[in-house]
Structure formats: structure tokens, C-alpha cells
Specification:
The complex is a heterotrimer of chains A (277), B (289) and C (440). Chain A has a domain at 65-231: MetI-like fold (Orthogonal Bundle). Chain A is built from 15 helices and no strands. Chain A has helices at 2-34, 38-41, 56-64, 67-98, 104-113, 119-122, 124-133, 140-144, 151-161, 166-174, 179-190, 192-207, 211-216, 225-231, 241-263. In chain A, α1 runs antiparallel to α15 (241-263), α4 crosses α9 and α12 (192-207) packs antiparallel against α15 (241-263). The longest helix of chain A is centred in the first third of the chain and has 33 residues, at 2-34. Chain A is flat, with a radius of gyration of 23 Å. The relative contact order of chain A is 0.14. Chain B is an all-alpha fold and 289 residues long. Chain B has helices at 2-32, 50-56, 59-90, 97-109, 112-122, 129-138, 150-176, 180-188, 193-222, 225-231, 243-252, 257-282, and strands at 35-37, 44-46. Chain C has 440 residues and is α/β, with parallel strands linked by helices. Helix content of chain C is 50%, strand content 17%. Chain C contains 20 helices and 14 strands. In chain C, α9 packs across α19 (397-412), α15 crosses α16 (355-363) and α19 packs antiparallel against α20. Chain C is globular, with a radius of gyration of 24 Å. The relative contact order of chain C is 0.16. Classes of the chains: A mainly alpha (277), B mainly alpha (289), C alpha/beta (440).
Chain lengths: 277, 289, 440
């Protein structure tokens, strides 16, 4: 039935293309805007394609705000936060999914509630005061340490670990493996796609932080990419939207590269039930 | 002995961080909900529950709560359904699937403010692409950002669009861990694809779905304010003003700190109650192997 | 040998200690790559002339972001020396207790003549007879119009409307519908949200009407909003009539959508800020239409007041360090100097706050070459400086703006009549003012 399979593949590809185009339309708008000269941006009827590939926007965006350095800062911040959240989240998730211990419900609730306490919205001034007293203002410490824990990751890993059959754990105990070995050698390898997914999410979260880095950095050398993007926008008078979109797309690129690398872990049909029958 | 404290040890890093950098500062904020404070903090007056009282007797706050309820419900349910369908599609092993996945993930990777900006351009009256298309195709000129309920619908579309990537990733990961053998066995038993979807896929996805529902509710309740700020600023006439947007306004535009603190306390309480009920009753629908 | 060595070391130390540059921090909200560069250039020029002073120029986000960062810094005990705060933050800054009123510096320093400041800008930042902050980037509202579309509609392009009534008439004539009844050209467009609230305040000033009591909060703390009167109603009716009869389109929140509609020639008249002049001139050239600029219209029969300055000003922060304060004052004087103001104005579209800069630009033929700029400057200079045109001062200003904008929204969507909406806005404003004032 190879012909059937080919037809199915073609249909799926067609559907994928259709769906992707629809979903990507707003970003496509960003791309075309980034290639337009300032005079082309606000025309009527609105044009889809630019008259020429005006790359100057990209050059302007990159050079005028030293985007390279800013993206490096963002990268350091985001990688550290990603690693911290993922590791600490795996450890805590494991505690809540595989162990019965006193106070576990209360501790889980305490951690869970932090989901409703976004730092930037609710506690920016007190948190900044802590940074001041720790002498962390304008350092990578202030950009990373407050965000190393993650209720999201903990909750997610708990959910995922709970889907792993108990028989695996029993088998490991019989083999003499301690809980840490079980985690490292069995659970984590079985959770590659979930961990990959949450790592990307944590990276994106850190990458898109704006207000906290703005408040906590005091020099252009420590500023992050999101602050750089804001630098491109005018207040009160018209912004140069071509340059802003060019900058936005450049800042978007690292997250997409990371995601592309991680999604390779999402390969269907490899997972078995895990039990050697 | 080591065995008993082991789970606690696992929790130490997380809890040190949240104790120092979340709970301690959050506490400072909550204290302020009983005060009236000047923007720069140089004037502080204890007002007891007055901030809370003002909230509950304010028609605008109640209106925001209702708006939030509608917004969250539609966005979460709509978003999850669309994301599940997308995940099923993206689960296929066809050439180039990696590129498609990355492209569909892209909206999640941009910040909420950028998402709002793009949609504001698309929906701009007269010269926006969507407005222009509507004029050409349907000969109509809906005012997306300045009339009710179109403005609310616009915000919902923008938020669903932005959060697709998040849901798709985890649905995909969940789909990965459903053993092929289950589907094979079901097919042998004569189940068609809809059957397989309803009887195998969805139940086995329920742990992830349980997680996603809560996360989506949290996002739409907490993060969408940047999108709203760019697209409608809570208008027209407060009809797209959600609880978090009001909080943002009171804290970061009006600099009315004590009042904003009270709003955050109320919001956390609402979410806590929702979560408690959700965990209590929702767990029963979840199927763990 | 040893004596020489010791002497060298001591000299080196002395030079190092006494020649160590004073570093001052300057936070601003002027986003846009050319503006950031321009401010840095000005700072560099100043540092060249003053090698003992180092100015750290920092972009700190939008106006509200800058205020948030400022508040956090103050409450943590580490504020900058000089910060740019938006116009409506004036009373909040005065009440902060951390600023040094500019008047104090001027009183101590006879070399700075306060009369070089454009009266309107100076008046805005003067409360209770004292100048608190130094005007820097001042703007005005202005109305751009499409002369080409005027001609097409049979209107004289050199005779734009002066009164509300004329404006409404023109807007109707400039509205074009297609065969299906859809409007393909509007007479007038504007942005809602902050711009619309600002325009409301401007039109109050145009009628010489106060926004707040106690002479707009200039003679004493404002305790009430007083705009729900005939003057306010005229403004509400003005906008409402055009919206309801379809000759005007509400472009949505912010400045950009409205600009887009005007630039793409889908609307014949646009109300926006003078800082847009540059962009509009360029857009008209590439869009092949002739650009006109006009004063804000006013209701006929009502005495004319003037317009209020917008934008932001520079505030000196008390750091308890005399050296830094002196350095900051020097930098401030530099920024206000004729040459610096010319550079800033010609590079951005804000008009100079230094009269001498305006005069110099005039002599150099700048305004002859750029007539739109002349209109914007004239509208401001021809405004009477009255309490009404000096604008309101209260710490509750952001809430007042939100209330006014929401009221417009309720009126446009016919949830309330103009009178009801106006009264509702005033009630909201009064509540916010009372809340704020209760702390002082």
C-alpha cells in the first residue's frame, strides 16, 4: 500500500503548509515590514511584499543598539535561568511524584501558589530592594538568581513522572538502584521530550523578560535584548517600524534555533511501555 | 534515615529560592494592601480593609472580573482544542516536520507586547491587512479595536495565537509517550481513528491536559496584559479590561501601590480557590498509568 | 633620587584624587535610534568641554517604565542624578521629596537666565511660583491636513477650518463613500487612549478653561476636577458628532494607527503631536500629496486660550553630594544652551525651549525652509500663558487621563450621552484626586 502512504503524506504536507501559512501570517507581516523602506511601511492599499529587499533595517537595528552585546547578555541570563529552572524543577517534581512524605501537600501548594506571583507584576520594588542590599544591582546575579526555581517545571515533571508505571521503580529497587540512580538512569531518559519542551519554555520566559532587567541594570553593557528592542521605539512620534521588526526578528531567532534543536527529541514511535516483557 | 529526608533534600534548592526571592518580597507587597502609599513611598497610611472594600464596591472591578472570566474560558478552551489538533498533525513523521513545528512554535517565542503590536497592525482600521481584506471580500468595515465585542474577540484571538506553541509542545511530548502498541492493538480490535482518538489518545493525554489547563488559565489570567495594553488599552470603555490589566494599570501607570497590592492579593486568592477546586475534582478525570 | 620618586608619587596621587572625574547618571526615555545617538552626542560634547565630569547616559524605557525604574531606585536608596519624567508626572515628582527644585539652582546661579525659557514650557513646570524641573523636550498638539484631498473636495487648501463648526463641516465634505456605502475616505482621524485624553486637555486650554481647581493646581494643591462644564461638553460633542455621522474614525489606542490612516490618505485631517512633523513631511513627499498644518480649531464665540506643552522635563535628584549636584547643574545648563537646543530640536521635531535657539533658527532660515515647524512654534508662542494653558498638576493625572479616555469610549459606543460620560469622567477624576491628596 505504498501508494496510499504517499497520498497520505502529500495530504498531510498540504495541510501542514496551509495551517502554517495561516498561523504565521502575523509574523510574515513582521518579515515583510522588516524589509521595507520607511516610506513603504504605511501605504494603502497595504502591500504584502516590499519593493526590494531593504536589508538596511537589519544593519541599522544591529549596529545602533549594539545588539550583539545585548543578545549575549540575554543569552547568559536565559541559559542560566533555563538550566536552573529545569534542574531544580526536575528534582522537586520527582519529590512530589514518587515519594510520600509529611507535609508534601502543603509544600506542593506553597510552591504552586508562586505561579500566581509573577515577579515583575507584583513585587518588583521589594525584590529590587533585596538586590540592592545584596549588592547585586547591575550584575548577572540579579538577572538570574531570583528566577531559578520553577513551579511550572515542578508541576509538569510531577505530572509526567506520574505516568511512568510503578513497576519500573520496583524493578529498579530490586536491582539495588537508589532513588537518585533511578532518576538519572531511568526517569530522565524516559522524559527527554518533556524535559526538552520545558527547557525551551523556560528559556523563552527568561529571554522575553523586559521590566525586571530594565529596573535592575544600570549600564548599557548589562542591558538585555528586550531592552534593546524598546530602544528602537519612539515615544510620541512615529517609530521606524521596519527597523523595529528587523530587530524583533533578530531577537526571535535564537529561541527558534533552540526549539528546532530540541524538537528533534519529539520522535514518534520510539517509546515503548518501558517494561521488558 | 537518609531515605526519609531524601525527598526534602530534593526540594531544598527550589524552596530556598522561592522563600528568599518570591515569598519574602511578595509578603512586603501584601502588607502594603492594608496601606495607602504615595508613589515614592514617602507617605504611608494604614487604611485597614479599605482598599479591598473599594475594590468590591467598584462596579469596574466586578466588570473586570466578568470580562476575565469570559476571556479566560474562551481562550483556554479554544486554545487547547486548536493546539491538540495541531499537535496531532505535527506528530506525523513527514519530511520537513521539524521546520513546520518550529514555525508553528514561533508565535509563542515572541513577547506578548510584540504579539499585540502585530495584531494591532493587522486589525488597524482602514489600512490594516485584515480590515482591508474584509472590505474587499465582505464589503464590511468592522471596527476591531474600538467596538465591543470585536475588541474582546480580537484580544482572545491574539492570546490564543500566541499561546499555541506552548500547548503544542506539551501535547506533542505527551503524544510521544503513548506506546504505539496501544494503537496497534486497538486497530486490530477494529477501532477507527476517531475511536482511537477518544479512547486512547485523549485519556492518555489527560495528565498533560490537566497541567495545560491550569497553565493556560494562569497565562491568560496573568500575562495577557501586555497584549491588551498595546491593542485596546482595556477599551473600549473598559470592556477588555481584565483583572490583571487593572492591576497593571494601578501599579505601573497610576502608581497607586497600596491599591494594586490589594488587587494582587485578591487575584491570588481567586486563583488559589480555583486551583484547589480544580485539583480536588479534576484529578478524578485524569488517568495515570 | 628618593626625593624625586616620592615627589612623583605624591603628585600622581594628588592628580588622581583631585582630577578624578565626577560621574553623574542621566536617565531618559527618548527611544528611537537617532534620538539615543543624539543625546549621547550631546553628552559627549559636554564631556569634551568638561573633562572632569563623566555623564552616564542611560535609556530607561518608555515614560512609565522610566517612572517605575525611578521609583524602584528611590525606594532602594540609589537614584540617578538627572531623570527625564513625563509631563503628567510633575506633581508626583514634587511630592516625592527627593528632588531639588530647579528654582533653587537658578537662584544660586546668576549665570542662568530663567527668561530664556519659552514661557509656555516654563509655566508648565512651575507650581506655586517655583520652577521645579527643567523643560527639555516640549511638544504641542497640531492638526495635519491633506491639501490634495482638500482640493479634490472643492475646499480651499490654504484656508483650513478655524472653528469647531467649520471643522465639522469640512470633515463631512471630506468624507467619501463607495458604491456599497463603505467609507473609503474619512474627514478626520485620531488615536484614542492617551492621545485622546491629551487632546481633551488641549481643547480645554484652547477655550481657556481649567481642568482642575485652584488654577489647575498651580496656586495650591488641586482638590477637584472642574471640566464637566460647557467647555468640556463642547469638546465631547465635537468629537461625538463626527464619530456618529461617520466623518471621523477612531483609529484605536495609541498614535500609530491614526498616523497610518492619514499617511495612506484614507483620512484628510489628523490630530497628533508636533514631534511628528518630520515624519509627515517625508510621508507627504513619498505619498505625493501636499501637506498642510493648522492650529487646533476652537469653538466660535469662546475666548481663545492656547495650547499646553506636552513631552517631558528633566529633574534633578537630591543625592546629598554637592560635587555631583554641581556637575549635574552644569550639564543641565549645557542641555538648555542655544546650540544644544538647536541640535536637539532639529534632530527630533521637539521645539526648542530656549528662546534664543528659536531666534537663531529663524535667522538661519530654518523656519522658512520648514514651514510646518513654523506653524507648530507659532501656535505655542501665540498661546496666552494663563492657568488654563499651563495645564493641570496633580498626582492623580494618569487616572484622570484614563477616566477621560474611557468616557469618550462610553460616549462613542452610545453607552452614555456626552453629558453623562463627561460627568462620569469628572466623578472618577475627583475620586482619584481625593485618594491621592489624602496622603498629603
Amino acid at each position: 500500500m505504498k501508494k496510499n502512504k504517499m497520498i497520505r503524506t502529500i495530504l498531510i504536507e498540504a495541510l501542514l503548509i496551509f495551517v502554517t501559512i495561516i498561523i504565521l501570517l502575523p509574523l510574515f507581516l513582521a518579515v515583510t515590514m522588516s524589509l521595507k523602506k520607511p516610506s513603504e511601511v504605511f501605504v494603502y492599499p497595504p502591500t504584502i511584499f516590499p519593493n526590494s529587499f531593504y536589508i538596511q533595517n537589519y544593519i541599522n537595528a544591529f549596529n545602533s543598539i549594539n545588539l550583539g552585546r545585548l543578545m549575549l547578555n540575554s543569552l547568559i541570563m536565559s541559559v542560566v535561568i533555563m538550566i536552573g529552572k529545569t534542574i531544580f524543577g526536575i528534582l522537586s517534581g520527582y519529590a512530589f511524584s514518587n515519594f510520600r512524605f509529611k507535609g508534601s501537600s502543603l509544600l506542593f501548594a506553597l510552591l504552586f501558589v508562586t505561579l500566581f506571583m509573577p515577579a515583575e507584576l507584583i513585587m518588583i520594588v521589594p525584590l529590587f530592594q533585596i538586590m540592592q542590599s545584596l549588592h547585586w544591582v547591575n550584575t548577572y546575579w540579579a538577572l538570574t538568581v531570583p528566577f531559578l526555581a520553577s513551579a511550572t517545571t515542578t508541576f509538569l515533571m510531577r505530572q509526567h513522572f506520574m505516568t511512568i508505571p510503578k513497576e519500573l521503580e520496583d524493578a529498579a529497587k530490586i536491582d539495588g538502584a537508589g532513588p537518585m540512580r533511578f532518576l538519572l538512569e531511568i526517569l530522565i531518559p524516559l522524559s527527554k521530550s518533556t524535559i526538552g519542551g520545558v527547557a525551551v519554555i523556560n528559556f523563552v520566559y527568561a529571554w522575553n523578560l523586559y521590566l525586571w532587567p530594565l529596573v535592575v541594570t544600570n549600564s548599557n553593557e548589562m542591558a538585555t535584548a528586550q531592552i534593546g528592542l524598546k530602544m528602537l521605539t519612539n515615544v510620541e512620534s512615529t517609530s521606524n517600524w521596519g527597523v523595529i521588526m528587523a530587530g524583533t526578528l533578530m531577537v526571535l531567532a535564537p529561541t527558534l534555533i533552540l526549539f528546532f534543536a530540541v524538537q528533534k527529541l519529539f520522535v514518534r514511535g520510539i517509546v515503548t511501555t518501558g517494561l521488558k516483557e | 534515615m537518609a531515605k526519609k529526608i531524601f525527598p526534602y533534600l530534593l526540594l531544598v534548592p527550589t524552596f530556598i529560592i522561592i522563600a528568599i526571592f518570591i515569598y519574602y518580597p511578595a509578603f512586603q507587597t501584601f502588607k502594603l494592601s492594608f496601606y495607602r502609599m504615595s508613589p515614592f513611598g514617602n507617605r504611608l497610611f494604614f487604611v485597614g480593609f479599605q482598599n479591598f472594600w473599594s475594590l468590591f464596591t467598584s462596579g469596574q472591578y466586578i466588570q473586570s472580573a466578568l470580562t476575565t472570566l469570559i476571556f479566560v474560558t474562551v481562550t483556554v478552551i479554544g486554545g487547547l482544542i486548536i493546539s491538540l489538533l495541531l499537535a496531532l498533525l505535527l506528530n506525523e513523521r513527514v519530511p520537513g516536520i521539524g521546520v513546520f513545528r518550529t514555525l508553528i512554535f514561533a508565535p509563542y517565542a515572541i513577547s506578548p507586547a510584540v504579539a499585540g503590536t502585530l495584531w494591532a497592525f493587522l486589525l488597524s482600521p482602514v489600512a490594516g491587512y485584515v480590515s482591508y481584506l474584509f472590505l474587499i471580500l465582505f464589503k464590511a468595515q468592522p471596527q476591531w479595536l474600538t467596538t465591543y465585542p470585536l475588541a474582546l474577540i480580537a484580544i482572545m484571538i491574539a492570546t490564543i495565537w500566541k499561546n499555541l506553541g506552548f500547548n503544542v509542545i506539551f501535547f506533542l511530548a505527551g503524544l510521544q509517550s503513548i506506546p504505539q502498541s496501544y494503537y496497534e492493538a486497538a486497530t486490530i480490535d477494529g477501532a477507527n481513528s476517531v475511536h482511537r482518538l477518544l479512547r486512547i489518545t485523549i485519556p492518555l493525554l489527560s495528565p498533560i491536559t490537566f497541567y495545560l489547563i491550569v497553565m493556560n488559565v494562569t497565562f491568560t489570567a496573568f500575562s495577557a496584559f501586555a497584549t491588551i495594553d498595546v491593542m485596546t488599552q482595556g477599551g473600549p470603555a473598559n470592556t477588555t479590561s481584565t483583572l490583571i490589566y487593572k492591576l497593571y494599570q494601578d501599579g505601573f501607570v497610576n502608581f497607586n501601590t497600596g491599591f494594586a497590592s490589594a488587587e494582587s492579593v485578591v487575584l491570588i486568592l481567586i486563583m488559589a480557590v480555583f486551583t484547589y477546586l480544580y485539583f480536588k475534582f479534576g484529578q478524578k478525570a485524569v488517568f495515570y498509568q | 633620587m628618593r626625593k624625586v620618586f616620592l615627589f612623583s608619587v605624591l603628585t600622581f596621587l594628588a592628580v588622581a584624587i583631585f582630577a578624578a572625574p565626577v560621574t553623574i547618571q542621566f536617565w531618559h526615555a527618548m527611544g528611537g535610534t537617532d534620538r539615543i545617538q543624539l543625546l549621547q552626542n550631546l553628552a559627549n560634547e559636554f564631556m569634551q568641554q568638561n573633562p572632569d565630569i563623566k555623564v552616564d547616559v542611560q535609556y530607561t524605557g518608555s515614560y512609565t517604565d522610566t517612572m517605575t525604574k525611578m521609583i524602584a531606585a528611590v525606594r532602594a536608596g540609589n537614584p540617578p542624578d538627572l531623570v527625564m519624567i513625563y509631563d503628567i508626572g510633575t506633581q508626583m515628582m514634587i511630592d516625592s521629596g527627593v528632588i531639588i527644585p530647579i528654582q533653587n539652582m537658578i537662584d544660586k546661579d546668576p549665570s542662568f537666565d530663567i527668561n530664556t525659557l519659552v514661557p509656555a514650557s516654563r509655566g508648565y513646570y512651575t507650581v506655586g511660583g517655583k520652577l521645579y524641573s527643567m523643560p527639555f523636550n516640549s511638544s504641542n498638539p497640531v492638526i495635519f491636513y491633506n491639501k490634495t484631498l482638500f482640493e479634490k473636495a472643492g475646499l480651499d487648501p490654504n484656508n483650513p477650518p478655524n472653528t469647531f463648526e467649520e471643522f465639522i463641516e469640512y470633515a463631512k465634505k471630506l468624507t467619501v463613500k463607495d458604491a456599497n456605502g463603505n467609507t473609503i475616505q474619512y474627514g478626520f482621524t485620531f488615536g484614542s487612549g492617551e492621545p485622546l485624553a491629551w487632546f481633551f486637555e488641549q481643547f480645554m486650554a484652547v477655550q481657556n478653561a481649567l481642568l482642575l481647581n485652584n488654577n489647575n493646581g498651580r496656586d495650591g494643591r488641586a482638590t477637584k476636577a472642574v471640566f464637566a462644564n460647557e467647555a468640556g461638553l463642547r469638546i465631547f460633542n465635537f468629537f461625538n458628532e463626527m464619530i456618529q455621522n461617520g466623518s471621523a474614525i477612531n483609529a484605536g489606542p495609541g498614535w500609530d494607527n491614526a498616523r497610518q490612516i492619514f499617511i495612506s490618505q484614507r483620512a484628510a485631517m489628523l490630530i497628533t503631536s508636533t514631534s511628528d512633523v518630520n515624519m509627515m513631511v517625508k510621508a507627504a513627499q513619498s505619498g505625493n500629496f501636499s501637506l498642510g498644518v493648522m492650529f487646533l480649531p476652537h469653538p466660535s464665540g469662546v475666548p481663545y486660550g492656547g495650547v499646553i506643552v506636552g513631552g517631558a522635563s528633566l529633574w534633578m535628584v537630591n543625592t546629598n553630594n554637592a560635587q555631583r549636584e554641581e556637575a549635574t547643574w552644569k550639564f543641565l545648563k549645557f542641555l538648555e544652551s542655544t546650540d544644544a537646543q538647536i541640535q536637539w530640536s532639529t534632530g527630533t521635531g521637539y521645539f526648542p525651549v530656549n528662546k534664543n535657539a528659536i531666534i537663531k533658527l529663524l535667522y538661519e532660515g530654518y523656519y522658512a525652509k520648514n514651514p510646518p515647524y513654523l506653524v507648530t512654534v507659532l501656535q505655542l508662542l501665540m498661546s496666552n500663558v494663563t492657568p488654563a494653558t499651563r495645564g493641570g498638576a496633580t498626582g492623580a493625572f494618569p487616572q484622570i487621563r484614563t477616566a477621560v479616555d474611557t468616557a469618550f469610549g462610553k460616549m462613542f459606543t452610545k453607552a452614555m450621552t456626552p453629558q453623562q460620560a463627561l460627568q462620569w469622567a469628572q466623578d472618577q477624576a475627583n475620586q482619584a484626586i481625593a485618594n491621592y491628596n489624602s496622603m498629603y
